[in-house]
Structure formats: C-alpha cells, structure tokens
Amino acid sequence: MRALSLTAIIVFLLDQLSKLGVIRLLSLRERGEIEVLDPLLNFRWAENRGVNFGLFANSAEFMRWVLIAIALVISAWVLWWLRRERPGKWSMIAGGLLIGGALGNVVDRIAYGYVADFLTMACCGYENPYSFNVADIAIFAGALGLVLFGGKSAKPTPPKRRKTP
Prior knowledge:
Blueprint: H1 2-25, H2 28-31, E1 33-37, E2 41-48, H3 60-85, H4 89-112, E3 115-121, H5 134-149
Antiparallel strand pairs: 1-2, 2-3
C-alpha cells in the first residue's frame, strides 16, 4: 500500500503544482497560449466542464457534481480492490496514478467548477485541438497499468490439491 499512497500523493502534488505554475505564475488564462516546443508541446488554456474531450459539458453544474461523485466512487473502488487483492508493486503504482490523478481533477471541479487543462501536443502535421493536464496523463497511465498488471498477485497462491479417489 505504500507504493500506492506515495504515487497518489506525488501525482496529486505534481498536478496541482503544475496547474499553479502554468496557470497562475505564467498567466496562461489571460494569455491563452504559450509556445513551448512548437509544434510538439504548447500550453493552451482550456476549461473542461465535461469528461474527456469536453463530452457532456452542456449541463455543466449538474455534470460537475456527477463527475465528482463518479471520480470519488471509482477511486474508492480501486483502493478497496487493491487492498483486497494485494497485487504486485506495479499494480499499486498504477492504482496510485489513477487515484492521484482523479483526486487532482476533483479538486479542480470543486474549486473552479471545471478541470483546468493546459497541455497541447501535435506532431507530424496533425494539429491536436484538445488540451489535457498532468492528472489526465496519470489517469490514463494508471488505467492502462491496472489492465496490464492488475491480475498479477504479489504473493502467488499455491495450487489446490486434487483429491484422489
């Protein structure tokens, strides 16, 4: 559980500090966009009031609380599942990524009414119109990690003995 807790805390802090730095200190909200490594990486202000890619953003106030509840329920379920199953270290890290990222976005929704997104990437002639944040990266990586490593227990269970007739 230590790997899960430590990962969740680090991701949460990185997410919140990156938002504070880029949005507040660099005044991204007022500037709109900052070229970093154009066109590969740019900071572009976005207020995500829905889910991925702004889906379900039309009933913003209602969806805000629904999305907060969903994120908290999923985080609690992942924590319960990992505590019960006691999988390997990589599963715990993946769970920490997912939980830390989800809680980072929950704080945004509670404090601002939206998730603050600011990272935009493009490559090879493709212009990406969507922005994301550190929490989004962690949620994606954590979910992928749980799929890849979730079934592997830290302590293998001995095979059951067959009864002989």
